């Protein structure tokens, strides 16, 4: 499938075949900047998921018996295709999910970085040689694939996150059934075509397009051994709850955050403003790691506020395909409504609004883009109180609170940690003791110093604590979720000797 929208209805990729069997219902992918229909897709049903799981289950034995390096070869083909088609795919990402073009391209770059990590890792050691108390014994920790992995991915990183999940799962010897986000099926289609082009054996990789009902059918099925999920806390917790009740099944879920940046009295305010603007407004605030709370020391509060507000007033919202754009549109009309509700909630809870560009001025909306889902920065200040919903609930938009604090870094940490989430965050300070205090005590999976809290590299573990996640569905940590460990102990001696001083003598009644 190329850049042109087509009349064709695109199907699922199951057992090495494209299929439009099953339900007649379809859905469309739209450009969030124009409202234009990009392509039409078949909506997956229980029977499509069933066929995909059957194919994945059947393909597993043969796939697992290949060497790591042979499995990785298929991924190397995809790595090259992602690189060769960087510009084209970056534009498709931007058209389908509205991220500005540097972000569209970075999504594709992040995808090939993950493929490179996973395929390169095929040649690295995959276990440990473990010493034994008994000289005649060799002990090892080995890994084997779990089986069928169900992958459910979000729209905001429509190329990168599928590869966070699938590159690792496949190289480790699992087969995959994947449901892309319903907002970005075009990216899903292209990724499936890449697996087909790479000649991956039938049934090893399967894709079913559709909505949450298709996703739930995947996660609920007993043939699925591991679920990898990245998306909303609501869905993630439902999956974690259900899967937790099924012995032998695992779920690694990465959900949202109510991420904060602490700006202390020792901050360099150039760095603080830059980091806060990037973290709050890049991707129109629609990253799990975007910041929605700026916790600022009273000594630098007024100056930081003036400077941050000044940039938030002017930051360029517009056509995401234009290089000069900083923020593209929100993903869909319902999401704009959700952002509106969060902005209103803050006001109801006593916020002092500093910037309200929720309704953009007519002249800010690019020509021919009237049907886009436009929304600009919303910045407010509010006195900290533990129970404020606006400081606890994730908006997933360009909606950010300034909270003033007085006292030492412990006070900042107390406010910072007072949310149910714990994904990403940052501290801006020139004082290494403050930085170290944040590093050690901020309740987070991803902590940054003098940087934005977005933009993690793929070789780092990615995931959160508290409500933000229960596992790390990316890179090294995904290996834990898609493999079983075996402690393999082998005796090289001629007799049996036990550890821990345990007697190996067998005594009998007539001894
Ligand atoms: C997400 O926030 O949904 O760290 C994923 C980052 C990206 C991934 C973000 N590498 O900002």
UniProtKB/TrEMBL annotation:
<dbReference type="InterPro" id="IPR015590">
    <property type="entry name" value="Aldehyde_DH_dom"/>
</dbReference>
<protein>
    <submittedName>
        <fullName>Aldehyde dehydrogenase</fullName>
    </submittedName>
</protein>
<keyword id="KW-0560">Oxidoreductase</keyword>
<dbReference type="InterPro" id="IPR016161">
    <property type="entry name" value="Ald_DH/histidinol_DH"/>
</dbReference>
<keyword id="KW-0520">NAD</keyword>
<dbReference type="InterPro" id="IPR016163">
    <property type="entry name" value="Ald_DH_C"/>
</dbReference>
<comment type="similarity">
    <text>Belongs to the aldehyde dehydrogenase family.</text>
</comment>
<comment type="subunit">
    <text>Homotetramer.</text>
</comment>
<dbReference type="InterPro" id="IPR016162">
    <property type="entry name" value="Ald_DH_N"/>
</dbReference>
<feature type="domain" description="Aldehyde dehydrogenase">
    <location>
        <begin position="18"/>
        <end position="485"/>
    </location>
</feature>
<dbReference type="GO" id="GO:0004029">
    <property type="term" value="F:aldehyde dehydrogenase (NAD+) activity"/>
</dbReference>
<dbReference type="Pfam" id="PF00171">
    <property type="entry name" value="Aldedh"/>
</dbReference>
<dbReference type="InterPro" id="IPR044638">
    <property type="entry name" value="ALDH7A1-like"/>
</dbReference>
């Amino acid at each position: 499938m190329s850049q042109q929208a087509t009349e064709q209805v695109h199907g699922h990729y199951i057992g090495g075949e494209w299929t439009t069997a099953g339900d007649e219902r379809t859905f469309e992918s739209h450009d969030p900047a124009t409202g234009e229909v990009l392509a039409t897709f078949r909506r997956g049903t229980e029977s499509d998921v069933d066929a995909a799981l059957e194919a994945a289950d059947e393909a597993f034995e043969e796939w697992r018996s290949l060497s790591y390096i042979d499995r990785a070869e298929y991924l190397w083909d995809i790595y090259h295709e992602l690189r060769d088609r960087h510009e084209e795919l970056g534009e498709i990402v931007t058209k389908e999910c509205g991220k500005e073009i540097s972000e569209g391209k970075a999504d594709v770059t992040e995808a090939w970085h993950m493929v490179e990590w996973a395929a390169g890792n095929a040649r690295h050691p995959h276990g440990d040689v473990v010493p034994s108390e008994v000289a005649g014994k060799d002990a090892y920790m080995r890994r084997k694939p779990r089986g069928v992995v169900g992958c459910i991915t979000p729209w905001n990183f429509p190329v990168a996150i599928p590869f966070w999940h699938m590159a690792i799962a496949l190289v480790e010897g699992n087969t995959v059934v994947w449901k892309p986000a319903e907002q970005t099926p075009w990216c899903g289609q292209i990724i499936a075509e890449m697996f087909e082009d790479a000649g991956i054996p039938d049934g090893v990789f399967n894709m079913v397009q559709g909505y949450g009902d298709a996703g739930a059918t995947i996660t609920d099925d007993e043939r699925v051994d591991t679920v990898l999920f990245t998306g909303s806390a609501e869905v993630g917790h439902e999956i974690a709850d259900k899967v937790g009740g099924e012995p032998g099944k695992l779920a690694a879920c990465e959900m949202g955050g109510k991420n904060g940046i602490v700006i202390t009295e020792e901050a360099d305010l150039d760095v603080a403003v830059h980091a806060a603007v990037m973290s709050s407004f890049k991707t129109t605030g629609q990253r799990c790691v975007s910041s929605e709370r700026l916790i600022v020391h009273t000594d630098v509060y007024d100056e930081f506020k003036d400077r941050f507000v000044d940039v938030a007033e002017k930051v360029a919202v517009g056509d995401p395909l234009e290089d000069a754009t900083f923020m593209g549109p929100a993903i869909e009309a319902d999401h704009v409504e959700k952002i509106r509700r969060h902005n209103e909630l803050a006001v109801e809870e006593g916020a002092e609004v500093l910037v309200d560009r929720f309704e953009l001025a007519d002249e800010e909306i690019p020509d021919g883009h009237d049907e886009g889902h436009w929304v600009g920065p919303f910045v407010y200040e509010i006195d900290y109180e533990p129970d404020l919903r606006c400081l606890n609930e994730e908006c997933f938009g360009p909606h950010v609170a300034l909270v003033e604090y007085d006292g030492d870094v412990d006070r900042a940490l107390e406010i910072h940690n007072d949310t149910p989430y714990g994904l990403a965050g940052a501290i801006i300070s020139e004082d290494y003791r403050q930085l170290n205090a944040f590093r050690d005590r901020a309740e987070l999976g991803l902590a940054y110093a003098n940087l934005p809290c977005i933009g993690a590299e793929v070789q780092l573990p990615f995931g959160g604590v508290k409500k933000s996640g229960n596992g790390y569905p990316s890179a090294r940590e995904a290996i834990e979720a898609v493999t079983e460990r075996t402690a393999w102990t082998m005796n090289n001696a001629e007799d049996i000797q036990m550890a821990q001083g345990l007697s190996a003598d067998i005594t009998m009644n007539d001894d």
